[in-house]
Structures are given as C-alpha cells and as structure tokens.
Amino acid sequence: MTRSYEYQVRNVHGDLLDLSSQKYRTSVPKSSRNYALADRLEQGGSVLLGDGKIKGRKINLKFDYAGGGASRAAQHNDVHQLMNTLASFFRIQDAPFYLENLVRNTRTRVYGDFSPSHVDGNEFLILQTSTIELDVLDAAWEDVTETSSGVVTMASGDTLDLSPALPNYCEDIFPVIEVTARADSPTTFSIETGRDPGTGFVVFRTILLSEATFTLGRVITIDSRNGKILIDGRSAPEIISFGFPVKFDRRNQRLRYYSSTGTGSVDVQIRHRVRTLY
Predict the structure, then answer these.
(1) Average model confidence (pLDDT) for the chain?
(2) Residue 86: helix, strand or coil by DSSP?
(3) Beta-carbon contacts of residue 242 (< 8 Å; ≥ 6 apart)
(4) Which pLDDT tens digit goes with each residue over 206-230?
(5) Which helix (H) or strand (E) holds 152?
(6) Cα–Cα distances in angstroms (integers) from residue 198 to residues 139, 195, 201, 206, in the given order
C-alpha cells in the first residue's frame, strides 16, 4: 500500500477509529456543483441556473480486516466486536467526525455507517477487504493545521492582507477572528473583508458590533466557522448590529477594521484553515 491512499477517521475528542494496523484507502470522491441548464427563449443555447454550491457526496473507505478466529465462536465474537466498535465510535454525541488525508494533511467532516462484506453463506466471517461508507458533510477539504496571522494592532481604517496565506484556488474561507480591546478601543466598530483593486477598499462581507463594556483586555471572538459570537469565551449574539458571517474567498483576501468615530485601535488575530475542493 502506498501512502498516497492513507486516511484515518477522528472524532471531536481526538480519538481515532482503529480497525487494523493499516490505514484506510480510498479514491477521490466525485464532486458536483448545484446547477441546472434551461433553454434560452428564442435565442437557442442554455441559461445557467442554481447557486453553484457543492452537492452532498459519499466516500467509501476500504480497509483490511485481519480478524476472524479459528473457531466459529471466535469468528462470531470478532464480527460483533467490530460492529460494536463502529457503533460506539460513530455516536452523535462525539461529532463532528473528520476524515483525514495523511499525505496532504487535510480533513473533511463526515458521518458513516458500516456494511460488512461476508463470505457467501456465512454471516460471521467478514471478508478481509471491507468498506465503510461515509457521508461527506463539508463541501471542501480543509487544512488539519490552523494558520494564524499573529496579533496585529489596527487603527480605524487599517487593512490586513491575507493573500500570502490564501491560495488563489481555495474555496470560501470562514475564519475565527479575535478582537482584543486596547485602552482607547471604541465600543462600536466593524470588521470587513474585501479587496483593494487600487481605487480603495471594496467591501465583500461586514459585521458591525456594539458592546458598551468593551474595555481593556476584553476579547470578542467572531467565529464564522461555527456561526458564533463570543465575549471572553461566552456566547453574545446580541452584540451584532449588522452582518455575519465574515468570510474570505480567492478574490477577497483583505480584512479592514473600521470605527465610525474614526478613532480607537484594537488588537486583531485571524485564524483560518485553507479549504479546497479536492
């Protein structure tokens, strides 16, 4: 087996699904965007319809099952132990589950079930090569390792260029942005993503936040990845005045901090995972 086909499955606690000494192998799942073609009225040709989002897809993991005792009783116990291992691992309480590509160091969220392949006429003897079918819940693969911008102090109107960390072939990036109050931080401000074509900043996405107690050392977390707004680690959706979620894409890779008063600064740190279709 070559490393180019090695995968593993991990749950939210970091536990790995371990069925044998070998990793799972699979092929790249087919992806298709959500679109349809309709005939153009009188002109001939087609009109493109749909939102272009990635449809749901499945992926099959093949693994080598080395179980099966010498006696019928041992074979029976091996099969049920395997089935119970899978049932215990894929509990909803332990979601999300990630399928990790060990060569590319990427992952995607999945959920799965197991249909063992049996020797004809013997339900207690699983074939050596078996398959787990997984539903791929994410549209894209993301880096296992999170990338951080480091802490940057920004005055109103300052922009931060993320393009060195975002390849031009990436899918939409949903970052986690931490904004820490300094001594002069305003209580109302916006965080914007966009681009600068040379004629000024063009806004792509924005979120306007207002918090009267945003004082020195307090931290607002804009978690676009999971759809959460936090203050000092506690949920605070009420501070959103406008917008959400914030995201980057292959054309919009700058972040701007803006205060309506034009004064005040904050410390900003951006964490993200690059997402790609394959």
Answers:
(1) 82
(2) helix
(3) 190, 206, 207, 208
(4) 999 999 999 999 999 999 999 999 9
(5) strand 152-155
(6) 33, 9, 8, 20
